[in-house]
Amino acid sequence: MTRYKSPVKQWVVAVAVALVGLTGCAVPVAGQPTARPTPSGATPEVVRWMNNFCGVAKYMIASSAVSFDDTQTDPVEAKKSVSESLGRVVDVLDVVLHDLDELTPAPTPAADTAVEVISEPLTRARDKFVSAKSTVDAAPEMTTDVFSTVIQDMTEAVTVMNEAVEKMDVVSLPDEYRDAVGDAENCG
Asked: What pTM was estimated for this model as a whole?
């Protein structure tokens, strides 16, 4: 079972690093809501958005400790361990996708595009992890056939996650968003 320990960690780290590169933090805004610029020149709405965006990245980083126990030799215990680990991966992706969805609509459409570019492949990857978990849960024990099917789904999920990282490299947020990183607490 050691075959899939490394790819799972790789996709989590790759996505988290890519998300951190696009993120920023927020500062409290007192008084009436206005479009007054912050010290960086970004509006409070953009700073808030970047803070939340960076919060998603921080959550992914904090959750990247999801790993698989590759020491199980009993097929029944191995099945249970793999199912639980896949469930944790799915739970993390559910939270991330929910939080990304909460970021739309963004203060500007260009930021919505960044969220879409990240959300679409993360959704496909989540679906593959759900499929892998369903395969494990439906099997009486972790046989070679079950393991092969699960590895195929996980390989596809990791491939999709890598595509997400590649897409993120070509998407950039407007200058105002990048400038807001310094004012956004979660981005520091």
From this structure: 0.72
